[in-house]
Amino acid sequence: MHAILYRSTATSPVSPADIARMVDVAARRNALWCITGLLLHGIDADGRHGFAQWLEGDAEGLESLFALICADHRHTDVVRIADSRDLACYALPTSRQAMWAIDVGCLPVTVEEFLICVAAHLDLSEPPALHE
Question: Is the pTM of this model over 0.90?
Answer without folding.
Answer: no
